[in-house]
């Protein structure tokens, strides 16, 4: 079942410079992807690629000066961009939920953990009173927090980073949403705790047949926890497909560079790690945005690259995708 469908999404920001001129940053440029029930989709790319902005747009959380000049976002068949704030509030946190970065700063420091979980249910009308507290405690147990009854009484500052991140997962899932978006859910956690948190999220997605969008810059996370991946660069998805296929036959030079920069066996595949910086979003070049860093760039790359379908599920936005794959 199709849960989330993002099609040709563009997001831009207007800002007035010191010279009093208004400049426009084109932050997302034609982003398209889908998330189905029961699958985990990874959205991967370097810092500034537009991953978190894509998540905020999908949740209907963009505010001025952000503007969406074209594109569509549909959740369970409903047009997110056509909804009012009141309509969005009925599904955000109830049918679709988000796990954010920085768990220790995302929890209310003045409320106990149990009270925050109960409030999530009361606000969305899923449960109240004793039932809400019972569901909250069960959810803490589901995310593998030991002694959940005692943790219901804990304050946020009493939790470790890993424990706080599990609480955020519990808060996102306590209302039994269909879709969960996890934005860098393991930032700042040590490797062992990262694995535990991601194992918990993956197991809950499977058990409840949820759809999940996991935003990360870590290809190891994508390889172990996602079924499909979309690779972002400078506000565009440059390659997408099943994880196994994309990792085995990366067709876009940027995907190849990401894989080459990953420590371990996967980095020994003969791809080139490229230097350079992302293009200026206020002054994007025409054609392929990666051409200034691409070792294969030719004059053909002065034209916008089409998405070339390498098979029914794998594609790359590169003029030479067939040669690379």
From TrEMBL:
Q: Name one GO cellular component term.
A: plasma membrane
The UniProt keyword set, sorted, is: ATP-binding, Cell membrane, Membrane, Nucleotide-binding, Transport
Which Pfam families does the entry mention?
A: ABC_tran, oligo_HPY
- Compartments, record wording: Cell inner membrane
Q: Name one GO biological process term.
A: peptide transport
Question: What molecular functions are annotated in GO for this chain?
Answer: ATP binding; ATP hydrolysis activity
Instruction: Please give, as recorded in its UniProt entry, the membrane topology of this protein.
Output: Peripheral membrane protein
**CDD domains (UniProt xref):** ABC_NikE_OppD_transporters
Segments crossing the lipid bilayer: none
Residues forming the ABC transporter domain are: 4-259
Instruction: Report the InterPro entries cross-referenced here.
Output: AAA+_ATPase, ABC_Ni/Peptide_Import, ABC_transporter-like_ATP-bd, ABC_transporter-like_CS, Oligopep_ABC_C, P-loop_NTPase
Major subcellular location class: membrane
- Which PANTHER family is this protein grouped with? DIPEPTIDE TRANSPORT ATP-BINDING PROTEIN DPPD, OLIGOPEPTIDE TRANSPORT ATP-BINDING PROTEIN APPD
Q: According to its UniProt record, which protein family does this protein belong to? A: Belongs to the ABC transporter superfamily.
Its protein name is ABC transporter ATP-binding protein
Organism, by scientific name, is Falsiroseomonas algicola
């Amino acid at each position: 079942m199709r849960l989330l469908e993002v099609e040709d999404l563009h997001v831009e920001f207007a800002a007035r410079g010191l010279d009093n001129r208004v400049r426009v940053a084109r932050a997302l440029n034609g982003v398209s992807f889908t998330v189905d029930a029961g699958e985990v989709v990874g959205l991967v790319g370097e810092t500034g690629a537009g991953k978190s902005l894509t998540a905020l747009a999908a949740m209907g959380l963009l505010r001025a000066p952000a503007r969406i000049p074209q594109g569509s976002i549909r959740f369970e068949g409903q047009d997110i961009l056509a909804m009012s704030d009141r309509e969005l509030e009925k599904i955000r946190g109830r049918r679709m939920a988000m796990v954010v970065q920085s768990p220790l700063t995302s929890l209310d420091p003045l409320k106990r953990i149990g009270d925050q979980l109960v409030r999530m249910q009361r606000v969305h009308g899923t449960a109240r009173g004793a039932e809400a507290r019972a569901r909250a405690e069960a959810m803490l147990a589901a995310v593998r927090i030991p002694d959940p009854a005692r943790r219901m009484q804990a304050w946020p500052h009493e939790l470790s980073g890993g424990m706080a991140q599990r609480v955020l997962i519990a808060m996102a899932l306590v209302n039994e949403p269909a879709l969960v978006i996890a934005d860098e859910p393991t930032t700042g956690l040590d490797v062992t705790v990262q694995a535990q948190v991601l194992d918990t999220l993956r197991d809950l997605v499977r058990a409840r047949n949820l759809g999940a969008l996991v935003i990360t810059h870590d290809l190891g996370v994508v390889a172990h926890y996602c079924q499909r991946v979309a690779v972002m660069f400078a506000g565009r998805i440059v390659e997408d497909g099943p994880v196994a296929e994309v990792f085995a036959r990366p067709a876009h030079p940027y995907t190849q560079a990401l894989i080459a920069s990953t420590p371990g066996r996967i980095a020994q595949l003969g791809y080139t790690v490229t230097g350079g910086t992302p293009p200026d979003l206020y002054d994007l070049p025409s054609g392929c945005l990666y051409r200034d860093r691409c070792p294969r760039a030719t004059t053909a790359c002065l034209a916008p690259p089409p998405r070339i379908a390498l098979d029914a599920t794998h594609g790359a936005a590169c003029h030479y995708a067939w040669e690379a794959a």
